[in-house]
Specification:
The structure holds 2 protein chains of 2 kinds. Chain A contains 3 helices and 6 strands. By secondary structure, chain A is α+β, with helices and mostly antiparallel strands. Chain A has one domain: Arc Repressor Mutant, subunit A, CATH 1.10.10. Chain B is of the alpha/beta class. Chain B is built from 17 helices and 9 strands. Chain B has a 9-stranded mixed β-sheet with strand order 6-5-4-3-2-1-7-8-9, covered by helices on one side. Chains A and B meet through strand 2 and strand 4 of A and helix 1 and helix 2 of B.
Amino acid sequence: MSCLMTTYVARSKQVAARMLGGEMMIMSPRDTTLFNLNDVGSVIWESADGQTPLDDIVARLCVEFDVAPEVARQDAETFIQELAEHGIMHVSDQPIGAEPPRQEPS
Amino acid sequence: MNVLMEEMNRRALALNIPLGAQLDVTYRCNERCIHCYLDHDDHGEMTFDEMKDVLDQLADAGTLFLTLSGGEVFMRMDFFRILEYARKLSFCIKIKTNAFMIREKEADLIRDSDVSSVQVSIYSHRPEVHDAITLLPRSLERSVRGIRLMQERGVKVIIANVLMRQNMADYEGVRALAKSLGVESTIDPTITPKMDGDRAILGLGIGGQELRDVMHNADLVGNVDEFCATPPPVGDEDLDTVPCSASHTYCYISPYGDVFPCVQFPLPTGNVRKQKFLDIWRYSPQMNDVRSIRPRELPVCSSCSHIGTCTRCPGLAYMQGDMRGPSVQDCEKSYARTGIPSANMKLRFAATGGHPVEGQQIVNLVQIQ
């Protein structure tokens, strides 16, 4: 991911996902690999609608978790890279189509 | 079960979230399996819009694992619309089908729907046995074709085989068939009474000696010594644990909107046509009654040496008359596994002066009504 161009990230439509106790649980149906995202990861996941630039997601992380922009950026890129390697997050320099996230049960 | 899955179940249990659910989209079926517990007439299935509403409610309630079953799911002309809608809600979906109606087009659509697995019922590798159980000519041929089409497309297929007297000799053949098709297979010796309470089909179940043979088959159970070991001393943890997922993290919804604790537990708890799903899940007295069951309070089973290792099904016990009573079929399994009679069996033997007989169907000895 380059810091010089606008990056967009989108959740894969192929995965199963649900918010459980404040943390996002994600399962790849094909190989049943299960991922448990912490609160930072959950915010990135929910924000990864394919339309929101990564810069805006990083800015949200800075506000919600009171972290420096460079730290938030580094963490977000590492996280997104890992999910992308498992095929459950898509990365592009163009906006990507995606489904809206589900809300946690009230 | 991996650590993360255990943690997810633990969290769902603590938060009272129905992590898993089975939704039967129809009870209609093209087969007439001799052991089936369902009435296949349509008594007013939910419409597509009602199904959508139920799926929305399950997703909002936190359900992740969804099984779509029947009846035969493909008897519904709108099944793929239901499946597509469910996938948009990010469920992890398993389909149960007999695969009879799966041709290239259906196999393509299943592949494109990213379901986690498709379970197909196969009772024998021999058409004369399988078709005599389904009562549908050429059903084995058609089902195997459906499996092959899905497997070729990378869909994970699991063959499920229910053991009965009719097909007891063929389970190795079914396993070999599964291997030749490149798919997994499971077997289950449990015959479930009909939903209307008719228990006559239990007579199709395999006998005690056959059950013992299955339980001691290393190809099926792995380490026989471990699987069939004498149960360890019962501890407080065994007596205070949650006995199964029914009503704790799992529930079942019929094609008519009735909500039950489990597919094998026909205790009505509410109907989504009249109530919100979460209101039923959280506040139904019946659901909470099931939720309150702990082994310690079970009048017979609490004194049983098998209580820590038994697969006791409260739904089967309910169908025998008391959800807090013994599940005779699970008593049979514990006995077949270890050779040690359950507390329930000992009571019956004491009352009748009988004793377990090798090769005899134990259910006839210990039936409680």
